[in-house]
Amino acid sequence: MSPIVWLRLGLLLFFIGAAGAFARAGDAPPKEFRDCADCPEMIRIPSGTFTMGSPKTEPGRFDAEGPQHAVSVRSFALAKYEITVLEFLTFLKATDYQPEPCDRLLGLTWQVAGLGHGKAYSPGYAEAPRQPAVCLSWFDAEAYLKWLNAKLGYRGAEPGPYRLPSEAEWEYAARAGTTTARWWGEAIGVGKANCNGCGSQWDNARFAPIGSFGPNPWGLNDMLGNVWQWTDDCWNESYVDAPIDGSAWKSGDCAKRVLRGGSWDNLPIFVRSAARNRAAADNADFDYASYAGFRVAKSLP
């Protein structure tokens, strides 16, 4: 066989192989994707098993972070950022949904100016469009998710793929394969997050715009600090009898839901991958819920 024939055969095999590779790559969702114009940027999180909770030797540890236990998590998607002021206002304008105040005394509430998809306003301390949306209850997050699922054609009682992450999924994604107190290491460091003692320009003063700090190894921003984030789990005082399959814990004190990540005014002991807190799902606990936001999870086939 002549060299030219060999060359043509080699090129043919190359293009056949490349086409097959592209086809296989298209079988799985991309690592980062967005389902619609109003949908959040999502990151595909790989499946795996991790140790949930903190060791007894971790500085700042609370008893509620134990006992440590192995949890297997199937692949899912998690929003790259917390839901922003702009994204939540888009939802309010489209639906006329009215959140309850997170502080009636100070008048801290999201406002919709009448019916007919009119103007909507965020609380005064979170006006910038790329600020994380806060002053939100667990039920507000659920209302947003119902609207988001409707954009994909899911109506009524039909469950859609968008949801809040389980507490296990949240910690698994926050750790991103690491076992230290924070994804960047044991110490809080300087300028890694926004908290009361994190060394950022926003420390103990105000919220930082989303994406102000570098992503963790799986491409997720702002998992620690800045804003407490709602998860789907009911509150339990420890992990005794907790699910080990990555699902949300649906028993316990379901009037309270689990918050993760810490906030801009918290000390560094709250800004750890294993740190957990709780607040009334209906926003009655002003100390925590006024600073609570959320990020969206999505079930994958």
Instruction: Give the spatial strand order of the biggest sheet.
Output: 1-2-5-13-8
Q: According to CATH, what is the class?
A: Alpha Beta
> Which structural class should the secondary elements be placed in?
alpha+beta
CATH architecture: Alpha-Beta Complex
| Count of distinct structural domains | 1
Please trace the helix and strand order, writing H or E for each element: HEEEEEHEEHEHEEEHEE
What coarse outline follows from CA principal-axis ratios? Answer: globular
Share in β-strands: 15-25%
Oligomer: single chain
Fraction of residues in helix: 10-25%
On the 0 to 100 scale, the average pLDDT is 88
What fold name stands as the CATH topology? paralog of FGE (formylglycine-generating enzyme)
User: Mind telling me the C-alpha Rg?
Assistant: 22 Å
In whole angstroms, how far apart are the ends? 48 Å
Number of separate strands: 13
CATH H-level homologous superfamily name:
paralog of FGE (formylglycine-generating enzyme)
User: Can you count the helices?
Assistant: 5
Strand count, sense and barrel status of the largest sheet are: 5 strands, antiparallel
Point out poorly predicted stretches. Answer: 3-27
